[in-house]
Amino acid sequence: MRRALALAQRGEGFTRPNPLVGAVVAKGGKILAEAYHARFGDAHAEILALEKAGEEAKGADLYVNLEPCVDFPGKKRPACAEAIVRAGIRRVFIATRDPNPAVSGRGVARLREAGIEVVEGILAAEAQRLNEVFFHWITTGKPFVALKLAMTLDGKIASFTGRSRWITGPAARRHVHELRRRYAAVLVGANTVLTDDPALTVREVEGPQPLRIVLDSRGRIPLSARVLAGEAKTLVATGEMAQEKEEALGARGVEVLRLPGPDGEVDLPGLLAALGQRGVDSVLVEGGGEVAWSFLAQALVHKIYFFYAPLILGGRTAVPAVGGQGFPDPAQAIPVRDLTLEWVGRDLLLAGYPEYAERERFARVWTKDSGTRS
Q1: How many CB atoms are located within 10 Å of the residue 171 CB?
Q2: How many other β-carbons are positioned within 10 Å of the β-carbon of residue 22?
């Protein structure tokens, strides 16, 4: 199963909105064949592995990290459960069931109906973590949101002069490109565009380009911004924008989405709902500090990636990683669970999952009182 998980991860960024799946066919303690779902629209992992195993698949065991699929309306690829039955597989080991309502439990039932022994739950936690984006999107219809910040040890993302290049080292910056490949969309605020003029593309690794999203509450984005050019698509979410500016952006192939929230700010829950309806399964929020606070204060962040550089910047007016008003009491701060630490070159990456108590009440209270702005 660990091998199946490792294989599945190879499809990261390429299979969305499909899940990551790896499959291993084994018999008598020997691996006969293995495969993974490499790209959306391509053959599924189980089908490929069985084809490689050929006649040897009869009486063998199949290890797969996600419940094999069945036929359902709109499905384009052959059902993996039926292929497993035809191949004569003896046992199937599954890490997790597929949360897709069209599949969940039906794949397991079909295999057992055919007399195949099914063992579930092997490395379930690891498998759920691997497909956390898919599991969230398929069950909620909204994107999985990750927040990435790169900061000094004292929590600054830019100096008092506004300079931020480069706080983290080359290895960490390359890792960010891997994250951009992994997530369907990358989001920043207008201040980041005005200050840093980022391209927000995948460059240092191979992979598909994400949808670039700019939160621009009042139409301040310059038409010369790099985020408006290049091979990736761009969406500007705004609360209010002059008609002339919207038309000029449209002439550059940029979509403008008007989502006015309180005080003319962008309605972030509305934005995520709209993205989910378009099939955008995940969003990587890259900054800046005010945008980070807006998402956190509304309990919209599901995962954090905080890069810490071995630097101390100081400065009362230096830019903090998370801005906004903040919480008045440490008891009201957002706890983060399941933390992991790893060195990325010279920098330290801390990843984890914010945990919101009474999520809806929390979001309602803090968006009202905190004065969040994008």
Answers
A1: 14
A2: 29
* b (16+ CB within 10 A) / e for 220-254: ebeeebebbeeebebbbbbbebeeebbeebeeeeb
Q: By the 8 A CB rule, do 200 and 186 touch?
A: yes
Nearest C-alpha neighbor of 52 from the set 29, 36, 66: 36
- Report the DSSP beta bridge partners of residue 296: none
Kindly report the CA angle at 108 between 102 and 1, in degrees rounded to 5? 110
Query: Which residues, at least 6 apart from 361, have a Cβ–Cβ distance to it below 8 Å?
Result: none
46 counts as catalytic: yes
The catalytically annotated residue of 12, 34, 46, 51 is: 46
Q: Would residue 262 be called left, alpha or beta, if left means φ above 0 and alpha means ψ between -120 and 50 degrees?
A: beta
Q: What is the mean pLDDT of each run of 10 residues along the chain (374 residues)?
A: 97 93 95 95 94 95 96 71 95 95 91 96 96 95 96 92 87 94 95 90 91 92 91 91 89 91 88 95 92 94 97 91 88 91 96 77 44 37
